[in-house]
Fold:
Amino acid sequence: MPVTEVQPVRIVAVNVEGLTARASSPPDHRETVFGVEGLRVSYSGKPALKDVGMEIYENHITAFIGPSGCGKSTFIRCFNRTNDLILGAKVEGTVLYHGQDLYAPEVDAVEVRKLIGMVFQKPNPFPKSIFDNVAFGPRVIGLGDSLGERVERALHRAALWDEVKDRLEENAYSLSGGQQQRLCIARCLAVDPEVILMDEPCSALDPIATLKIEELMQELKKQYTIIIVTHNMQQAARVSDKTAMMMLYEDTRAGTVIEFDETDTIFTRPEDKRTEDYVTGRFG
Structure:
C-alpha cells in the first residue's frame, strides 16, 4: 500500500517552511541542564501539577504552551524554587540541575535563585535610577567590585545600553514598557545567572517591543539557557527550540505535560490530537 505523507498542521501567522528549515539544521548536542521526574505541585493540598517529566537542554530556548490554568507558571517557578514563597505550596518529585537535586535539604533556595534568574509578566523595575536597578542584585550579594562595568555589561547584553547610557541616573519609571522589561532582563543578567526563566515576558508589551525581546532572546541563548511561558503560539514558534504542550487532567484539574518535542514537530506534526487542536486554534 502506498504511504500517505502526513501534511503539516497549518497555523495562522506561523511560517511553517521557516520552522522546517530551522529543524533541518538543529543546534549541536547540548548538555542536560534540568532533569525533571515525577514532579507534583499542590497548593494547600489541591493538586496544581502532576506526573511531569522532561529534560531541558543547555543553550536552548524551551517554551511552555497550553491553555490558562494548566500549570505553566507553577512549572516554571519550580526551576528556581519561587513556589517556596507561596503559602501552602508543596513540591514533590525530582528537579535536577546539572545532576544536583534542587529540593535536597542542603540546597539553599537563595543560592538557587542567583544561578537561575526570573523575568515576570509585567515589567517590575524598582523606584530607583536605571543604574541602581541593575546594580541592586550585585550589591545585595556582594559583587560590588567594578560595579559600573558590571552594570554596563548587563545593559549591553539586554540591548539597552545605547538607549540609556546618557540617562543612567534617571528614574527607571521614565522608560517605556518595552525598555522597562529589558531593564528587568539586565537586572537579572547583572548577577551572572546560568539560566533565565521568562514567565510571559511580552504579555504587556506592544508588537514592536515584543519583537525586540524576541530578538534579544535569540542573542541571549548563545550564553544562557532560557525557559519561556507564553500564550502566543506565533512567539513560541518563532523563538523556541523545544516546546512542551501542557493540559489539564479531567479528573483532578491538575496540569501536566502531554507532549514535548522539537518546536517544528509540535507545530507541524504533533502526535497528540489535543496539541494539534490547541496550536491551530480549535480550542484554548
The first helix runs from residue 16 to 24. Residues 152 and 161 are 7 Å apart (CA to CA).
